[in-house]
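Translate structure to sequence.
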């Protein structure tokens, strides 16, 4: 270390060189300090991201799934399914028949008297005192009936399974047999079987199998066990073969007509969900055996007179699948943020505000409850407030004519959306891009043009929830049947899911509808399936509605829970 006297003995040039060297050392140390500071900032950001990820995983495992929050009076509905153990409340009083009826039918309409299952048969059991006890025990006077206590209970009888023998007598002419080389034999026409050369599979049996798998989510191996408990041996392979046959021979021609009609819609909804198919001979060799395949959903929008829900099975999630399926469709399509859709030209893609909201909600859930809704609000809370205001307005517009919806959106929703995206742009660069709030803001920014699209027509919807509700039965069903065994089974499942859910959307009893189609189309030679004949059996034809209409008015989601 240099002392003052050492500096005094140095000449001017030496001192200048020393100062320059010290300056270089300072600059080097400053650069190193900046580098270390940046490394520390990066490390701290990573720590925050890891902490956020751990908290998010803990929340997924142990936390509440609800997306409800208190600041807005009408938040988005909860899209989760709680187990019976979660919902159970041993202290709650048991519902009466009237209360069960009220729960089943949903919100009671004003001015309408409560109905007590008037469509069900009633068996009365009178529990009276014996005739010899009709005298008063105190004074021996005659007792007079002043009314009755009535208690109602629902009784269920297990389904009945029986055998129908189709007996067709044959007649021969004795005279022809005596005097002619050719005998005359006559017999009446008998109903053709649904499955040729099958003496077991009736239309009602196949309808029951289809209904319980695709509506109730009951896989074939469980149905096989159930039949076995009833003393009937029907193996799951036969059931699968029957479903593949009816899907290909009876429902595929109807599916093709509905496909063409769906493409005439003003707006549709699209979504996709993965499925594992064990045996796929046509799978590209470069893809792993355990690669996911997909069920794609295509559904008509709310303004269409006849709802249509179609599923398509595919090996891939690539954009060429919806591109081919929606060929010649050039209207509006509601989708989530999946980029493959946007590669398809000629379709006006409408973004989903529910997906946008969900990303902000993922951040909100990480805030300790005691710290929520406190000034100053956190970014996720501000974003949710904007979006929840939009959803609240949509509920207010629910009963408006579509042209009125358009006007109200321009007047009330558009200013909120403008303000929201200004806020997004202002805050996008103030957060860590890979953090959850950074992901939410980036999604909103990237999807802006698509999220605004619903404003252009009152018939469009603010979200893609319609598609999510319809695809949920497959998502729930997969938890039971886990995978499809073959490509044929997956294709049949896509078709039968389509008709089960389309029947529900058109307020039909899906069991009755499937049975009707199988019963009546089986009597027609497939080569005689004209367009005119097939349209009579679409899930929304007048003929089908007259035969299969039901009081089922809940959404697909409600019926699956």
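Result:
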């Amino acid at each position: 270390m240099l002392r003052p006297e050492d500096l005094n003995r140095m000449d001017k040039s030496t001192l200048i060189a020393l100062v320059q060297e010290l300056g270089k050392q300072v600059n080097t140390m400053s650069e190193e300090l900046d580098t270390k500071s940046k490394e520390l900032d990066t490390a701290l950001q990573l720590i925050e991201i890891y902490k956020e990820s751990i908290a998010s995983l803990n929340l997924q495992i142990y936390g509440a799934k609800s997306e409800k929050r208190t600041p807005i009076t009408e938040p988005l509905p909860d899209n989760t399914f709680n187990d019976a153990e979660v919902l159970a409340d041993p202290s709650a009083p048991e519902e009466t028949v009237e209360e069960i009826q009220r729960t089943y039918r949903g919100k009671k309409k004003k001015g309408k008297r409560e109905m007590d299952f008037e469509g069900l048969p009633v068996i009365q059991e009178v529990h009276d005192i014996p005739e010899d006890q009709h005298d008063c025990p105190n004074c021996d006077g005659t007792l007079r009936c002043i009314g009755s206590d009535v208690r109602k209970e629902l009784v269920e009888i297990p389904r009945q399974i029986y055998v129908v023998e189709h007996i067709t007598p044959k007649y021969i002419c004795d005279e022809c047999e005596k005097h002619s080389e050719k005998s005359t034999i006559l017999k009446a026409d008998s109903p053709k079987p649904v499955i040729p050369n099958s003496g077991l599979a009736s239309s009602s049996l196949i309808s029951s199998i289809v209904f319980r798998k695709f509506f109730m989510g009951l896989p074939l191996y469980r149905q096989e066990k159930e039949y076995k408990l009833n003393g009937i041996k029907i193996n799951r392979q036969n059931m699968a073969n029957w479903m593949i046959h009816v899907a290909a021979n009876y429902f595929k021609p109807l599916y093709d007509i509905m496909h063409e009609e769906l493409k005439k819609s003003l707006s549709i909804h699209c979504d996709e969900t993965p499925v594992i198919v064990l045996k796929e001979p046509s799978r590209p060799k470069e893809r792993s055996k355990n690669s996911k395949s997909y069920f794609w959903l295509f559904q008509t929008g709310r303004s269409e007179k006849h709802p249509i829900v179609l599923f398509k099975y595919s090996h891939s999630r690539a954009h060429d699948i919806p591109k081919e399926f929606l060929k010649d469709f050039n209207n509006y399509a509601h989708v989530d943020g999946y980029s493959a859709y946007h590669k398809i030209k000629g379709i006006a893609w409408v973004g989903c505000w529910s997906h946008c909201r969900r990303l902000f909600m993922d951040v909100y859930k990480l805030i300790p409850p005691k710290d929520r809704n406190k000034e100053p609000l956190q970014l996720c809370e501000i974003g949710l407030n904007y979006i929840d205001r939009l959803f609240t307005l949509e509920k207010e517009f629910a009963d408006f004519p579509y042209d009125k919806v358009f006007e109200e959106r321009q007047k009330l929703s558009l200013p909120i959306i403008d303000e929201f995206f200004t806020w997004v742009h202002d805050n996008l660069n103030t957060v860590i891009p890979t953090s959850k709030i950074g992901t939410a803001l980036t999604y909103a920014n990237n999807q802006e043009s698509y999220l605004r699209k619903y404003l252009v027509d009152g018939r469009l919807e603010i979200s893609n929830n319609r598609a999510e509700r319809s695809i949920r039965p497959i998502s729930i069903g997969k938890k039971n049947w886990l995978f499809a065994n073959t490509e044929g089974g997956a294709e049949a499942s896509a078709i039968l899911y389509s008709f089960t859910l389309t029947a529900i959307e058109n307020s039909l009893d899906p069991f009755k509808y499937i049975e009707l189609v199988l019963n009546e189309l089986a009597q027609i030679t497939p080569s005689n399936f004209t367009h005119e004949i097939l349209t009579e059996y679409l899930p929304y034809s007048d003929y089908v509605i007259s035969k299969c209409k039901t009081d089922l008015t809940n959404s697909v989601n409600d019926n699956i829970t």
